[in-house]
Design goal:
The structure is a homodimer of 427-residue chains. In chain A, the strands form four sheets. In chain A, strands 10-9-11-8-7-12-13 form a seven-stranded parallel beta sheet. The first copy, chain A, is globular, with a radius of gyration of 24 Å. Chain A is of the alpha/beta class and 427 residues long. Chain A has two domains: 6-231 and 406-416, 3-Layer(aba) Sandwich (Aldehyde Dehydrogenase, Chain A, domain 1); 238-386, Aldehyde Dehydrogenase, Chain A, domain 2, CATH 3.40.309.10. Chain A contains 16 helices and 16 strands. Strand 16 of chain A pairs parallel with strand 13 (372-377) of chain B.
């Protein structure tokens, strides 16, 4: 054997993943709906059958995580139990039951010269997915890629390496049972961070898209270093604006849900904007309701004059995604003032208006430039399942390819089929 | 005045362009169809009215270009005359006449909980366009951005700086006549190459997309350095495959057109694949027809045995976008052989099959992974105008957001409007 330095070995290993992924992508691109769904159902069966092995692997990760001093929240994200494993298997079956996204014709038209043109959905190719501690992402992300005909190269967090490895073994077993190559879902088998840099370089043009799932530092590194397109979910700094003509009870119900249903999700509202015409009556009621739910409010001077128990707010607070039981509050002069605040501070994820005024609602929906604009509902509906997409791989906050919840159909691209009967183009 | 070093000045200038572009993008995003079209028609009128000034500016560029020793082909791309200026004005009017791409609802559906969700086309934001010598791109690119509601930051080639500047003045005059800010179409007013690097960095997240138009070196630099998404047109290494069951005369007509109608366009066929079952009869006829048109053929051994006047081909030839009157030829065993060759050498732009066999055509259209797959027509139909898109800003060869001809509708993205009547999400 020749002597390779570790870095040479890693590059060779990663380049090999790229080559195999391209072959896997070709097989998946040409696979039938039935074959892909057979693989997904077989994966679910393997997850159930191997639950003992998965739990053993997870116990190793949990032990190492405790020894490393991971926080209780991180340990909870890492933990698997019977219910969570059943959730993973059920998730795979739900993805199998989704409509087939590949081969769908977006449109078809005929030109005056008789050429017929069809715009047809096709897979993207090879997708690199970089995520952190939750081991269930291994199954969700791999399965969404299979459903949409893409090969996946997965890079999970080192904390969940054993759990993700055990789940990954079930996925490849399912692929092979359906006659599909295991190379359609590969997992990077080293925790060496240099492997991420190589993946981000595109592995000799093998990788067509990178999807990072995780905290700000991960996303920032991916966006800085990637040489291939990135579909990033940055943050959800979401607003709910209570307009002068809001129904008061609806406003209270929506803001309580939008802030407190779950505080740690990206669709949680972080800032309440409330019109000065309705604030004197409504803000005390909202403050009481949220305080009862354990929420801290931080407001501007006008808000603090109107309701008891609101702490002072800073500009930094308005720019902060709390992901916690804290709400920024600002009393606004009118809809222009509210739109201006959203334009300045929104992360472009989800913003809502509560109003009974159709003209104000129409203006808000047209002018707010976020991926999801909501009228008279909770911002916590920002979710692929709630949109009817089934599973989602994240909520995209960029401007191109896909915005909002990214489901199987958003992991496709398109091509044109041009059908003629001998047409040649005039000079 | 404080003393700035040149680099500080350039960074300040470029950052200022970014800030102004965002304001321009906001104005355009909210502009009505009528207002945008008024601007486009006013631009056309200014182009016609200022044709004298534009020709004077072009004369300066031509003089400098000749002094610099530009090639005849580059000087021809740079040259403007009365006909070309009228072409620019007519192009602006044609873009005004296109369907409005913003606000179009891709779909609308209602969830079981009563939420109605609409997926609506919206502008992307600020688009940076980097191009080379053709001054007409200034008008085409700026106008397509206006039509699609995007602000543009243009960076033309230094050779065409005077011509592009004179055209740009007509565009901003048109914007202002329609009550839109001149900042909606800005042109980088320096030929300093460092400005391109700053634009590619995104100007503090002001720029949402970069579109390079030019040769391989330009595209490669943009893809290596960009920190924002790039919609690139790489090259058109296009194939025409003549299947065993092709109509012979149709095959001759299509290949002559696909290769020789214009040899310098990206949709020109560079390689002929011909099935061994039909090659003995047909290849000599194709060779004669192409030779009469002044085309050099380079073929494999089987091709050279079948027809007189074919030079030898190399693997490098199969990988070359000639953009010239040269055609690579390969005799293929069957459709698998042809698909394998295309999979290896195609640039993913446009590939065609000529056949009377529906099953072979269907397989080709399904399995070839290029942006445009053609049956029984010339690859030179790869063009936004021929697709009915009106003007195009290029033909995208990447995998995400847009593939094939990029017209005004492809310079949009989408958002979701979620409309409820008080829905709160269950825990």
């Amino acid at each position: 054997m020749t002597d390779h330095s570790p870095i040479n070995d890693l590059q060779t290993y990663m380049d090999g993943l790229g080559v195999k992924a391209k072959a896997g992508a070709r097989a998946l691109r040409l696979a039938s709906k039935a074959q892909k769904n057979k693989a997904l159902l077989a994966m679910a069966a393997h997850i159930r059958a191997q639950s003992g092995e998965i739990l053993q692997a997870n116990a190793k990760d949990m032990e190492a995580g405790k020894a490393k001093g991971l926080s209780a929240a991180m340990l909870d994200r890492l933990l698997l139990d019977g219910g969570r494993i059943e959730g993973i298997a059920g998730g795979l079956e739900a993805i199998a039951a989704l409509p087939e996204p590949v081969g769908v014709e977006d449109k078809r038209w005929t030109r005056p010269n008789g050429l017929t043109i069809a715009k047809v959905r096709v897979p993207i190719g090879v997708i690199g997915i970089i995520y952190e501690s939750r081991p269930n992402v291994t199954a969700d992300a791999g399965a969404l890629c299979v459903k949409s005909g893409n090969a996946a190269i997965l890079r999970g967090g080192s904390e969940s390496a054993h759990s993700s490895g055990a789940i990954h073994a079930c996925l490849t077993a399912g692929l092979e049972e359906a006659g599909l190559p295991a190379s359609a879902i590969q997992m990077i088998a080293t925790t060496d961070r240099a492997a991420v840099g190589m993946l981000l370089s595109g592995l000799n043009d093998s990788v067509s898209l990178i999807i990072p799932r995780g905290g700000k530092n991960l996303i920032a590194r991916v966006q800085a270093d990637a040489r291939v397109p990135v579909l990033a979910h940055l943050e959800g700094l979401c607003h709910t604006y209570v307009h002068a003509k809001a129904d008061p009870q609806m406003a209270i119900d929506i803001i309580c849900n939008a802030k407190m249903r779950r505080t740690g999700v990206c669709g949680a509202t972080e800032t309440l904007l409330i019109d000065k015409a309705i604030a004197p009556k409504l803000l005390p009621l909202i403050t009481d309701a949220l305080t009862d739910l354990g929420c801290e409010l931080r407001g501007d001077d006008r808000a603090r004059e109107l309701a008891i128990g609101i702490n002072p707010v800073t500009d930094d607070d308005y720019a902060t995604e709390y992901l916690d039981a804290i709400l920024s509050v600002k009393v606004t002069d009118d809809i222009d003032d509210a739109l201006g605040h959203i334009s300045r501070y929104s992360s472009g994820h989800t913003d809502a208006i509560v109003t009974a005024d159709d003209a104000a609602a129409a203006r808000f929906l047209a002018e707010v430039d976020s991926a999801i604009c909501v009228h008279n509902a909770s911002t916590q509906y920002a979710d692929g399942g709630e949109f009817g997409f089934g599973a989602e791989i994240g909520i995209a906050t960029g401007r191109i390819h896909a915005r909002g919840p990214v489901g199987a159909e958003h992991l496709t691209t398109y091509k044109y089929a041009v059908m003629g009967n001998g047409q040649t183009r005039p000079v």
